[in-house]
Specification:
Blueprint (H helix, E strand, L loop, with lengths): L17 E5 L3 H14 L9 H9 L3 E7 L2 E10 L6 E9 L8 H15 L4 E6 L4 H10 L3 E6 L18 E7 L15 E3 L5 H7 L1 H20 L2 E7 L3 E6 L1
Parallel strand pairs: 4-5
Antiparallel strand pairs: 1-2, 2-3, 3-4, 5-7, 6-7, 8-10, 9-10
Helix pairs in contact: 1-2, 5-6
Length: about 240
């Protein structure tokens, strides 16, 4: 059984000159909106400045990730229903070329520490089940748990990443004070749903094949969930690993 250290995020080192700051000014809000638009292929509708300003001013989580004085990433989350002690992380992005440097871990660690100071017990978010690097990060690194498969959750999306595809998403929940979920042992895995290694490259090279993957993964998920199985983890060779409750 593959295990993660319980402090997988706390072990992430902050590179020199990198800092996470709350978005306190209008100028910072506009810059964060522009960064997120660049991440999503030029689409400015995902987090417009006026909405971001309202969320930040109302006390929600809204931060920029800086390399020296240049903002290179941003993250926005809002509080859930009263009494649930929850927060929903709506959008997080890093400028192209900055992935695989541990900056995503830094943002998630900051988000967890920020939430715990405000008595938040868990954070939820969605991600595209076809994106292998996000599945690896969310399920293997952070140890979040899949709670729902959402068919075409956001409807048609017109950004440079999602345009032309249906917006199926996985909802995950991260219990902030609990040990991370472990990849299940081989004897517990009763089914698996594979995904492509790089769906974005496949969308660019063969959109029809990418669309086939969407339907294949959706069908596999819904069938296994209807059979009473749950997602127990993820690994790159096999994909999503299903176990009995």
């Amino acid at each position: 059984m593959e295990e993660l250290p319980p402090d997988a995020l706390s072990e992430a080192e902050t590179p020199p000159g990198v800092e996470i700051r709350e978005l306190d000014t209008v100028a910072e809000v506009f810059r964060a909106s522009a960064v997120l638009a660049e991440v999503w292929g030029g689409d400015r509708s995902g987090m417009p400045p006026n909405l971001l300003r309202a969320l930040a001013h109302a006390g929600n989580y809204a931060v920029g990730l800086y390399d020296q004085e240049r903002m290179v990433g941003a993250s926005v989350a809002f509080f859930g229903p009263p009494g649930t002690r929850s927060m929903h992380s709506h959008i997080t992005g890093l400028l192209p070329g900055l992935q695989s440097r541990g900056l995503g871990r830094l943002l998630k660690r900051h988000q967890r520490e920020w939430a715990l100071r405000r008595d938040v017990g868990h954070i939820t978010w969605t991600f595209d089940p076809l994106v292998a690097r996000n599945a690896h990060f969310n399920l293997q690194i952070i140890g979040a748990r899949v709670t729902e498969y959402l068919v075409n959750q956001y409807g048609p999306m017109d950004d440079g990443v999602n345009r032309g595809d249906e917006s199926d998403r996985l909802m995950v929940s991260w219990a902030l004070a609990a040990p991370p979920a472990r990849t299940p042992s081989a004897d517990r895995v009763v089914a698996a749903v594979a995904i492509p290694h790089d769906i974005q490259a496949l969308r660019d090279a063969d959109p029809a094949a990418a669309a086939d993957w969407r339907l294949r993964v959706r069908d596999g998920f819904l069938r296994h969930l209807d059979d009473g199985l749950v997602v127990g983890g993820f690994d790159a060779p096999r994909g999503y690993l299903f176990v009995r409750r």
